[in-house]
Amino acid sequence: MNDAPTRADGSIEALVAALPEKYQPIFGHPELSDGSSRGCEDRLALILAAAQRLQGALGRPLRVLDLGCAQGFFSLNLAAAGHSVHGADFLDRNVDVCAALAAEAGLGKATFQCARIEDVAAALQADTYDLVLGLSVFHHLVHEHGLPPVVEILAGIADKIGCGIYEVAVREEPLYWGPSQPKHASELLAPYAFQRVMSWQPTHLSGVERPLYFASQKYWYVGDDFRAFDSWRFQSHSMDMSSHQQSRRYFFSKHVLLKQYSLANPARREFNREEYENEAGFLGAPPPQMRTPALIEAVVDRQDCWLAREMLPGRLLLKLMDEHVPYAAERVVDGLIRQLVLLEERGLYHNDVRCWNLMIDSDSEPHLIDFGAISKTRSDCVWPVDLLVSLLITVREIFMGHVGPVLPVRRGLLDVSMLPMRYQTAFANALAKPRGAWSFRELSDGIKAWAGESMEFPGYVAAIAAAERGMLSLEGTLAAEMHEGRVARENLARSLDEARAELTRSREDAHRWHLLAAQRDDEIATLNDRTMSTTVSHGALQHRMEGLLAQLAVQEAEARRVGEDNAALGKSVQEWQARADELNHLLHLVRGSWSWKLTAPLRGLKLLVRQPTAFTRRIVLAGMRRVVRYPVLARRLNSLAQLFPPLHAKLISVAVNNRIIADVPAPIEQEGIVGGVSSFTGLTERDGLDRLSIRGKAFYQGIANGNRKETR
Q1: Are the beta carbons of 455 and 424 closer than 8 angstroms?
Q2: CA–CA separation, 712 vs 708, rounded Å?
């Protein structure tokens, strides 16, 4: 059911003609589409393709919400494709056009309402829609409300609707709202885990193109691969230490991994692009003897590189170590060296051979991953740079069953005597050769050729062993100090939080006491003004009050230091309260004294001279309060005052406004109040004038004079 019916006077031609802007082509009416601001067919093709993918994943037609639907071009085309669509637009004329077009085409699954995006988003319920469209509308909200509130609105939408397609304006556009947009358009869609630009679209406003995003918390859509994902993260493993500066995202489906290499960060752009090209190139033509996952998609966009591949079976070696799951260490090492030899024979090298880049299957067979680290460069990505030395450290970690922290480089586990005998001999013989002759083939042959004899190590091995023991000892000390530092920082953070809370409470207390002191100061100043005209005895009271004011000033200073000594401030306030009570008691005695009563006429005369109107008003009010105490007298005076209607109405108004009487008497409420409404039917002009107020008579006289002039 459409919320906005077609206007009664409106054919579709008339409704379209009444639009302030024909922003989109008119659905089903090419003859009315000429002059539309934007072409929509290319975006429609992308939207329909995404909707078809999502429909295939869900196994049913979609429920679509179109925010800012304009003239309904996308809503109606989606409805024509079999989906249920609800469009919302803040302009009622747009909604009228949409409703008329839906009725004409018999699209009962297309409904529309006139509403703001903020209100529609606030009323959303979970699992009501599968797809939301927000095409070139949210930049207006950002300009109106700022970025954070709009991101919060999108976070609510992302929680309730699985997928969204958004066309986002960018700050480079030379329009009034441009400077208010975020630096990167993707910041607006920050609540979504997956964001991918499907295309860049031209507009009618400038030569700057806008990105058209597919965004989701549940699905990825890269190339031809549309797939639900179970989890995602910025880090590939627990030892990542944010080395990629959040320029990568890893999405995990049941058997497929999707990597996003961002090109937005200049510091990581070239590195990410190089690793993407390495991985895509290697998985596109891997060595036949090496088990590698199948490459599913490899796509390069303007802002990102995407690579989807199968995941090899098994678990990361690092995970097995952390969970103390047993594995066959020698089988892992032999399999690792065998793969490095295969790569070496093809002029390729893995530049990051680490325990977190080894997948171990159920037979303890290792499989190298992180294929982006495979290149023709014969060096490790970081210290110790040399591949054979780096491998020695990894082999030591495999046999130890533990990977130490990177502080800031890997631990130098270089003592070959700590390895099993056949690896001792092979590594010692390989490292004894000139550096240029080091190779994984030489190491592999040495391991296979070991005949079971022990080896006499040269002296440098003992020196390396001593250095390693010192390094491990230093590492232990450093780790202990770091732990103590973390504990100290946590304790300090808690203490700072408590201190901040205490300071906040102290400031609030000080503010309250300051307001109370200011209020008391005003009260005392008022009392001081009222007692300045009293007798000499009042001079002593004034002197006492000045002393209290001085004490109050001291107490205000103490209140400002309440953060240092709240207890002292509380005590001072109690003393001040007692003295204020004493002052009130003294004032009560003064007002009851004969000197106060005897000087009352003088104070009245002073008020008459300075403020005659206020004095007269006070006398009248006092008289009226006394009269109402005597009902018989009040009725007689009321009857007498009625002989003078304006005066009577004024007195009644004063009595009501000052709460001397509760309300206007019923008979007077209609005809006796100045400015009230009355009936003049059947009255002569003179009688009618008598019932008017002075101002009413003046108005009447002005009207009468005007009429006389016109009749001349």
Answers
A1: yes
A2: 7
Tell me what percent of the residues of the chain surpass a pLDDT of 70.
87
**SS3 annotation, 173-203:** CCCCCHHHCCCCHHHHHCCCCEEEEEEEECC
pLDDT (tens digit, 9 = 90+) per residue, 605-645? 776 777 787 777 778 888 888 887 788 887 888 888 888 88
Read off the pLDDT of residues 451-487 as tens digits, 9 standing for 90 and up: 888 777 776 676 777 777 776 776 777 767 777 787 8
Contacts of 272 (CB under 8 A, 6+ apart): 244, 247, 248, 261, 262, 263, 305
User: Which DSSP state fits 581?
Assistant: H
CA distance 527 to 545: 9
Reported confidence tier of residue 576, pLDDT bands at 50, 70, 90: confident
CB atoms within 10 A of CB 297: 17
The dihedrals phi and psi of 385, each to the nearest 5 degrees, come to 70, -50
Which residues are registered as beta bridge partners of 66? Answer: 87, 133
Query: In terms of DSSP bridges, do strands 358-360 and 366-368 run parallel, antiparallel, or are they unpaired?
Result: antiparallel
What's the predicted TM-score (pTM) here?
A: 0.66
CA dihedral 160, 161, 166, 170 (to 10 degrees): 20
Q: Where are the beta strands (DSSP E) in 291-406?
A: 295-300, 304-310, 315-316, 349-350, 358-360, 366-368, 374-375
Looking at the DSSP bridge assignments, the partners of residue 256 are 310
Asked whether the bond before 408 is cis by omega within 30 degrees of 0, the reply is yes
State the amino acid at position 348 in one-letter form.
Answer: L
Amino acid at 230: D
- How far is the C-alpha of 226 from the C-alpha of 211, rounded, in Å? 20
Question: How many C-beta atoms surround the C-beta of residue 486 within 10 A?
Answer: 10
Pairing mode, strands 349-350 and 295-300: unpaired
Cβ atoms 97, 25 nearer than 8 A: no
Q: Kindly report the number of other CB atoms within 10 A of residue 120's CB atom.
A: 20
Tokens for 210, please give them. 């806008």
Q: Which residues pair with 314 in a beta bridge?
A: none
Measure the CA–CA gap between 701 and 710, rounded to whole angstroms.
Answer: 14
Torsional sign, CA 678, 682, 684, 685: positive
User: What is each CA distance from 678 to 366, 601, 649, 669, 695, in whole angstroms?
Assistant: 103, 44, 13, 9, 15
Tokens of 520: 């008391």
Residue with tokens 């925010």: 67
- Spell out the alpha helix ranges (H) of 346-458: 387-400, 421-432, 440-449
pLDDT at 128: 97
Asked if residue 646 lies in contact with residue 694, where contact means CB atoms within 8 angstroms, the answer is yes
Closest C-alpha to 330, from 447, 414, 429: 447
Q: What is the dihedral sign for C-alpha 264, 268, 273, 278?
A: negative
What distance lies between CA 123 and its chain's CA centroid? Answer: 19
Report whether 652 contacts 665 (CB < 8 A): yes
How far is 349 from 207, CA to CA, in rounded Å? 46
Q: Look at the block and give the residue holding tokens 């919060």.
A: 152
Q: What is the SS3 assignment for 252?
A: strand
Q: CA geometry: angle at 235 spanning 233 and 236, to 5°?
A: 100
> Which ranges constitute the DSSP H helices of 18-91?
41-58, 73-80
- Residue 677 CA to residue 696 CA, distance in Å, equals 11
CB 246 within 8 A of CB 258: no
Q: Which residues contact 167 (CB under 8 A, 6 or more apart)?
A: 43, 134, 135, 136, 201, 210, 211, 212, 213
Q: Can you state the angle between helices 631-641 and 645-657, rounded to 10 degrees?
A: 140
Mean model confidence pLDDT for the chain: 85
User: Distance between CA 282 and CA 274 in Å, rounded?
Assistant: 12
183, 188, 193, 198 alpha-carbon torsion, rounded to 10°: -80
The contacts of residue 634 (CB under 8 Å, 6+ apart) are 627, 628
Helix axes 459-531, 536-560, angle to 10 degrees: 170
